[in-house]
Amino acid sequence: MNNKATITLYYLASMLFYIDSIIQLFSSGFTSSVIRLCLGSAFLCFGAHNQSKNKKSDTKDNSNKL
After folding, report:
1. What is the pTM of this model?
2. Using CA atoms, how far apart are residues 66 and 63, in angstroms rounded to an integer?
């Protein structure tokens, strides 16, 4: 799987965890909502980290070609 697909999947997973967190907040309670909110934030951080790592590797590849 290429890196852009991985980043997109991390962001999609974080969005789904956020949506699930909102649903859980209104239906079952605060504790399960907080857990899903933390999972969504973790996946958002994974996606941002991979995106910045991808940008750094692209600039290194482009500088080596010059």
Report:
1. 0.78
2. 5
